[in-house]
Amino acid sequence: xxxxxxxxxxxxxxxxxxxxxxxxxxxxELALKIHGAREELGLSQQEVAEKAKVTQQxxxxxxxxxxxxxxxxxxxxNALELRLDLGLPKRRRKTA
Length: 96
Fold this sequence. Notes:
The protein is an all-alpha fold. About 60% of the residues lie in helices and about 0% in strands. It has a domain at about 15-80: lambda repressor-like DNA-binding domains (434 Repressor (Amino-terminal Domain), Orthogonal Bundle).
């Protein structure tokens, strides 16, 4: 019987699967950070949605990792005072 980890490692050998997996992993990570920030501030989804000028349903989708447009994402991040860092990963940085 194949374990999940072995199955995943096998699937990750595919370049296409690996790329899609990484995109979903990043989306889930962002969703968790947004949800965590909102809860840390003690705010409801409705309160953040009103501050961001989006619907509560849109915020819920973002927190659940459902793909959204960048404008909605930025409005929510701004409402939560989250800073976006788009720096290159260490493996892609050029050394001087």
